[in-house]
Structure formats: structure tokens, C-alpha cells
TrEMBL record:
The keyword Transit peptide does not apply. It is found in: Cell membrane. Residues 418-539 form the Integral membrane bound transporter domain. This is FUSC family protein. Belongs to the YccS/YhfK family. PANTHER family: MULTIDRUG RESISTANCE PROTEIN MDTO (PTHR30509:SF9), P-HYDROXYBENZOIC ACID EFFLUX PUMP SUBUNIT-RELATED (PTHR30509). The lineage of its organism: Bacteria, Pseudomonadati, Pseudomonadota, Alphaproteobacteria, Hyphomicrobiales. Its main location: membrane. The chain crosses the membrane at residues 36-57, 63-83, 95-113, 142-160, 166-185, 449-468, 474-491, 498-518, 530-548.
């Protein structure tokens, strides 16, 4: 084998191309980009119509009227995630109702009518913040409603209208909302469903290329680089993002989308496992390379023309697999090479079934088999979190959303006190910052504070530079302000730091255009944002703190118990079997909370790097799904008693490894089964010459290989879930450590 070539230095791509690639991965199909364009178009229309309305009716609100109309467009589009037109319309109605309710209250108060009215409005922000954060008990929809309420309340605080002006602002909001709805709900919008299909086709093409490269490496006796699967891993994130958009656009078709995603997920896993079946340092006394490469080339061709049926190509593939099967049982090959080729046989079989769709179960939600009615069952909508929940000690405690609501009320009270006691000129910025950065846990608040503070500093610096360079060019600055808001819409989901910088830029430029905000006010924007962020972080850490990792560790252990129960129910255990299909969805829902969980270790409170723990759990369930598939195939094959004994040894070791992670067995218990498994592998190779067993041996080889691979994620989880202080090095070392032989 030739040595690996040294890594080549990759030239840095131009900025525009990097942005294009980022958008392709994080916004497949341009769903959020289209929302940003709709926001920009709405801004242009509402500013023009709002100014014309103020001038035409002589309202004397040439800046504040279009400002509130623009606020309506911002609320209707920015806080309304991409979905179907009907779903977005319903969300717009909710946003409109909450915002109008506050504007009616603002009209009744009339803060511009006197000092007492102004005081009432400022104090009103405290209960409003509690209500806005308590809405999070209903999930993300409630969180968006709360943020919309705070944005409208903050704009009202900035304007401080009289009662008559507040009534006009209500009309301005209605005007802006109608324009935004007309622009956003127009039929000219990209299809998230088509974008999802396109991303799966990209994955299909990448898998075909991967197989071509693997085939060339095997045929020419070149090393296959371990980083060759980076493209597949990279595309995995794009498929996930596209899947979320497609489900939002057509929730009723979620089972179909899941089936399609799973089909390509199985393809990716299968080809990566195939790369691990290439024998290493094997003498070429037996020609195994040619049939191996020919079979890989055939699968690649089928992926490149999946809708074309070529009978002759199928015959050549079957001949290549038959020749590879013959070679795999050759006594001239070392035992390790024969074992690898036995696994390759089942890998090619699995690839062929996924690509051609011979078995309907292979197209169903991963992993098959599963009950037929399970694939059509949509998960029930999440219930609103109650006021009190049961704590770890069994007592009733205040639920997390209401604890966060109390934190928000406390933080808003502090920033309002700054306004009343030390006369902070722009205290509403600190209050709005509190509402935007305070998260659903201490970890999320920390992450948001960090990004919001740094992003605002960068955004204000850019705004100050544009203010000096474009002094007097109002419309040019308005264009930059609109562009910044559009960038915020596209990046707010995955790059909160960039979104914060864009918002900071748009705020300082917008306030300069509307109220003549100068350099002093721009500097105030920075330090008052920092004040609000510091208050939010301190309150989140001190007042009724919420640490989601306290909830995650028992959740992970509960999932592991379900994994063990499902594994224990499979063949050769008699009785009713349990699929791990439902566990895939549960792990995904747990993974959605990752950005908040990993941050909590900054405060020394985390049970470990939860991102790594959940990712490892996902790997574990993937291996279990493959073992479930093999177990069902072995049960259908009705293997001999010798092979059942072999499988039992591996099964016993796996169950013991689960017991170690769950704290029900000693750390070395799983290693005690290694001699029995090693003897089982020798038994498998010794039976290779028995013609009656040749059809079943590849499946047994698969089962033993997956049984070995399953130990690594279990060892990592055992290290990550310990009560002692967590260290990433310990978790990695635990997974990579070889199994120790029993004494």
C-alpha cells in the first residue's frame, strides 16, 4: 500500500462564494432568503405609503407613522418562520392580535399626555415582560409572540405618543401588517418540499462519487483517505435543515418526508460501513479486488441513474457479488480478511435493496421493520407546560417557563429602576436587551449575552462608520438599514452573532434617520445594551436559575433503558419484539436543545458536554437499528445451533455493557465476556467451509461486528454520565480504549 499523500493546502475561497455555500447549507431552497426579500420589499412599500399617509392627511407624523408601519412589517415577517401560506397566515393573525392589544392599551394610557402617563408606561414594561416570557410555556410560537409584544412595546416607549398619536400609530400598524401579509403570502415563493427533494438528490450524487473513489482505491491498491466521508457528513446537515422546512410547509406529509430522508440516511451509513469492510494488508494471492470494485461501481451507476432499469448491469452485479462470496470463503485468505469480506457481502446486499427499493420495509422510517401503522402516526402536538411540575425530590416546584418569567420581571424592574433613579437616557434599550437575551436556561442566556453584546458592538461601530461616511445621504443609509434587517432574518437561526450585529447596525442608522441620533446616542446604545445583558445574566444565574442539564441526564438514562429493553427483545430472545424507531425521534427532540445545554458548563454546573452525549446516543441508536435489521434477517434464516451460540455470546456482552452504563454492573463486567466472543469469532471462521452455513455466515459476521462497534458509544456514555467533573479527554479516551481481556 502506498503511503498517504501529505494534505494539500486549500486556497481560501472568495467571500461571496463562502456566503453562497453557507446559504446552500443553512437555507436550502432559499426559504429564509425569500423571507428577507419579502421584508425588504415590505419596508420600501410601508415607508412610502406611511409617509404619504402622514403628509396626505396632515397628521404631523412623517417619521413616526412609517416607523410603526415598518415595525408591523418586521413583526409579521421576522417572528413568522417559513411555513405554508395558511400556517403563516394563522401566525400573522396571532401576532397582529397581541400587538394591537398593546397598542389599544397604549392609546388608553397616552404616555405623551403627561409625566404620570409616562411613568405608567415604563412600569407597565415589568408585567409585560413577565407575560411575554410566560408565553414560552406554549413552545416556540409562544416565544415569538412574547418577543413581538416586547418589540412593539419598546417602539411605543421610544415614540411616547399622546392618546391621539397612539390611535394613529394603531392605524399605522394595521397598514404595515396588511402590506407585509400581502407581500409575504403572495404565490411567488419557493417550495420547501422541492428544496428537500433536491438536497436528497445532492446526497445521492455525493454517495455515488464516494463509491467511485472507493472502487478506484480498491482496484489500484491505494489507501482510501479517512476524510473522504466529510462531504457526506457535510450534506447531512443540509438535508436536516431542508427536512425541517419541508415539514413546516406540509405537516401532513411528514411521514413521507421522513421515509425519503431515511432512505438516503441508510445509503450514507451503508457506504461508510462498506469502506470499513475493505481488507487491510492482505496479500493478492486471491483476486478479491476486482469483484469488490465492480460491485461498488455498479451501485454508483445505479445511483447516477436510479430510474433506469438495466437487466444486464444487474446480472454483472450479481456475478461480481457471487465471485466475492466465493473469494470470501477462500482458505488462502487470512481470517481477518475473510471476516471483512463477509461483512462486505451484507453491505452490498443492503445497498442494493436500498437503491432498487426491492423491499418496501427498506423505504420505511428507519429502522425497519416496524408496525405498519407507526409510519403514519404523527407525533402529538406539545402540551403547554403547567405552572407547577414535579421536582427531582417529588415535590411540586415552579416550572421552567414561569421561573424564566420571574427572572424577566426582576431584570426589567432593575433596568426600569435605572431609568427612574439614575435617569438612564435610553433605558428601553437595556430593557429590550433583557427580553432578547434572557433564555430558557442559564446556558442559553449566557450564549445570547455573549453574542448580543459583541454583535451590538460590531454593529454600532459599522453604523457609526456609515454615519460619518454617508452624512446627509438619508436614503442610502435607509438602504443599509433595510439590508441589515434582511441579513438578520437570514442569520438569526444559526448565526445569532451576525444577526445581532445586523440589528445593532439597523437600529443606530434607523434612529439617526428618525430622530437625529448622534455619536453620543450611538455610544449609549453599546453601554446600555451591555447593562441590559449583564443584568439579564446575573438575574438568570441568581434568581430561580434553570439548568436544563439537570433534566437531561435522567432523560438520557431513560433512553438507554429503552434501548436495552428493545435490544433484549430481539432474536434469539423469544417473544414480542420492540423496534427502536421511536427512539430516533426522541433523540432528535433532545438534540434540538443542544445550543442551550452545552453552554452551561461555563458555570461548572453541567453534567458534561451534552452535545457530545446526545451525538453519541444518536450513534448508539444507529448501530442498534442495524443490529435490529440483522437480528430479523437471522431469525428468518433459522440458523444452526452453533451460530445461535455465537450470537448469544455477543448479545450477552452487549447487555452487560448497557448494565455498566446504567450503574447496574461493575466497570470491568463487559470485558469479562471478551474471551467468549473471541472464541465465537474463531468458531465462525472455522465453519466457513460448511456449505450449509454460507448463506447465514455473512449475517453473523455483521452481527458480531456491530456488537463490537456498539461498545465504543456505550463506553463514551459511561464516561460522560458520571457524577464526577466532566472532562472531554476522559470521554474520548474511554471510547477509543481497547477492551481489556478478562483475567
Amino acid at each position: 500500500m502506498e503511503p498517504l499523500a501529505p494534505p494539500r493546502h486549500r486556497p481560501r475561497e472568495p467571500f461571496a462564494r463562502r456566503v453562497k455555500h453557507w446559504l446552500a447549507d443553512h437555507d436550502p431552497g432559499g426559504i429564509d432568503t425569500t423571507r428577507a426579500l419579502a421584508l425588504g420589499i415590505s419596508f420600501v412599500i410601508v415607508i412610502a405609503t406611511g409617509y404619504a399617509t402622514s403628509v396626505g392627511f396632515r397628521l404631523g407624523m412623517d417619521t413616526t407613522f412609517p416607523m410603526m408601519a415598518g415595525c408591523a412589517a418586521l413583526v409579521m415577517i421576522s417572528f413568522n418562520p417559513g411555513a405554508s401560506a395558511a400556517a403563516e397566515g394563522r401566525t400573522m393573525l396571532r401576532l397582529f392580535g397581541v400587538s394591537v392589544a398593546f397598542l389599544v392599551l397604549l392609546t388608553a394610557i397616552g404616555p405623551g399626555n403627561g409625566t404620570a402617563n409616562d411613568m405608567v408606561q415604563k412600569l407597565l414594561l415589568i408585567p409585560l415582560s413577565f407575560i411575554a416570557l410566560a408565553l414560552r410555556r406554549s413552545g416556540m410560537d409562544g416565544q415569538r409572540l412574547g418577543l413581538a409584544l416586547i418589540v412593539v412595546a419598546t417602539v411605543g416607549t421610544i415614540i411616547r405618543p399622546t392618546r391621539m398619536e397612539a390611535a394613529m400609530l394603531l392605524l399605522a400598524f394595521c397598514q404595515g401588517a396588511l402590506v407585509a401579509a400581502a407581500v409575504r403570502l403572495s404565490p411567488w415563493r419557493p417550495s420547501a418540499v422541492n428544496a428537500f427533494v433536491d438536497t436528497t438528490l445532492d446526497m445521492q450524487s455525493a454517495v455515488a462519487t464516494y463509491l467511485r473513489e472507493l472502487s478506484a482505491a480498491v482496484r489500484d491498491n491505494h489507501p482510501f483517505p479517512p476524510d473522504a466521508s466529510e462531504v457526506l457528513e457535510h450534506l447531512r446537515g443540509r438535508v436536516w435543515n431542508a427536512l425541517a422546512n419541508a415539514i413546516a410547509e406540509d405537516p401532513a406529509a411528514q411521514p413521507d418526508f421522513e421515509q425519503l430522508r431515511v432512505r438516503f440516511y441508510r445509503l450514507r451509513v451503508a457506504v461508510q460501513l462498506l469502506a470499513g469492510c475493505v481488507p487491510q494488508k492482505t496479500p493478492d494471492t486471491v483476486d478479491w479486488r476486482q469483484p469488490f470494485a465492480a460491485a461498488a461501481d455498479h451501485i454508483a451507476r445505479r445511483l447516477e441513474a436510479v430510474d433506469v432499469s438495466d437487466v444486464h448491469a444487474e446480472e454483472r452485479f450479481e456475478r461480481a457479488v457471487a465471485q466475492l462470496r466465493l473469494v470470501a470463503f477462500s482458505p488462502d485468505l487470512p481470517g481477518e480478511a475473510r471476516f471483512a469480506l463477509l461483512r462486505a457481502l451484507t453491505a452490498f446486499d443492503r445497498l442494493s435493496m436500498v437503491v432498487t427499493g426491492i423491499a418496501a420495509a427498506e423505504m420505511a422510517p428507519f429502522p425497519p421493520p416496524h408496525p405498519d401503522d407507526e409510519q403514519d402516526a404523527l407525533p402529538p402536538p406539545p402540551r403547554a407546560i403547567p405552572l407547577f411540575v414535579k421536582g427531582p425530590d417529588g415535590r411540586q416546584i415552579l416550572s421552567a417557563p414561569y421561573r424564566v418569567a420571574c427572572q424577566g420581571a426582576m431584570a426589567t424592574a432593575i433596568t426600569t429602576a435605572f431609568d427612574l433613579l439614575v435617569h438612564l437616557d435610553h433605558a428601553y434599550w437595556a430593557t429590550m436587551t433583557v427580553m432578547f437575551v434572557i433564555g430558557n436556561s442559564v446556558g442559553e442566556t449566557y450564549m445570547r449575552v455573549r453574542y448580543r453584546t459583541v454583535g451590538t458592538l460590531i454593529g454600532v461601530a459599522l453604523g457609526f462608520g456609515l454615519f460619518l461616511a454617508l452624512e446627509g445621504q438619508i436614503w442610502v443609509m435607509a438602504g443599509f438599514c433595510m439590508l441589515a434587517q434582511m441579513i438578520a432574518v437570514v442569520t438569526q437561526k444559526d448565526r445569532y452573532d451576525i444577526a445581532s450585529a445586523a440589528v445593532g447596525l439597523s437600529v443606530v442608522l434607523g434612529l439617526h434617520i428618525i430622530s437625529g441620533l448622534g455619536p453620543e446616542g450611538m455610544v449609549a446604545r453599546v453601554y446600555e445594551t451591555a447593562i441590559g445583558a449583564a443584568v439579564a445574566l446575573a438575574v438568570s444565574f441568581i434568581v430561580l436559575p434553570v439548568y436544563l442539564t439537570d433534566q437531561v441526564r435522567p432523560e438520557v438514562r431513560a433512553l438507554l433503558r429503552r434501548c436495552r429493553a428493545a435490544f433484549a427483545s430481539w432474536w434469539p430472545h423469544p417473544g414480542e419484539t420492540t423496534s427502536v424507531a421511536a427512539l430516533v425521534r426522541d433523540v432528535r427532540s433532545l438534540g434540538l436543545r443542544l445550543p442551550n445545554l452545552g453552554a452551561e458548563q461555563v458555570f461548572g454546573h453541567s453534567a458534561g458536554d451534552v452535545a457530545n452525549i446526545v451525538s453519541t446516543l444518536d450513534v448508539l441508536i444507529t448501530y442498534l437499528a442495524l443490529m435490529e435489521d440483522v437480528a430479523h434477517r437471522l431469525a428468518a434464516a433459522n440458523p444452526s445451533e452453533q451460530l445461535v451460540t455465537v450470537v448469544e455470546a455477543a448479545r450477552s456482552r452487549t447487555l452487560t455493557a448497557f448494565e455498566v452504563v446504567l450503574g447496574e454492573a461493575g466497570a470491568g463486567s463487559a470485558d469479562a465476556a471478551n474471551p467468549a466472543v473471541a472464541a465465537a469469532v474463531s468458531t465462525v471462521l472455522g465453519l466457513a467451509d460448511d456449505a450449509k452455513l454460507r448463506e447465514t455466515l455473512p449475517l453473523v459476521a455483521d452481527y458480531l461486528a456491530y456488537s463490537e462497534a456498539l461498545l465504543r458509544p456505550l463506553r463514551e456514555l459511561n464516561a460522560g454520565l458520571r457524577d464526577k467533573p466532566w472532562r472531554k479527554e476522559d470521554m474520548i479516551a474511554a471510547g477509543a480504549a481497547p477492551a481489556t481481556p478478562a483475567p
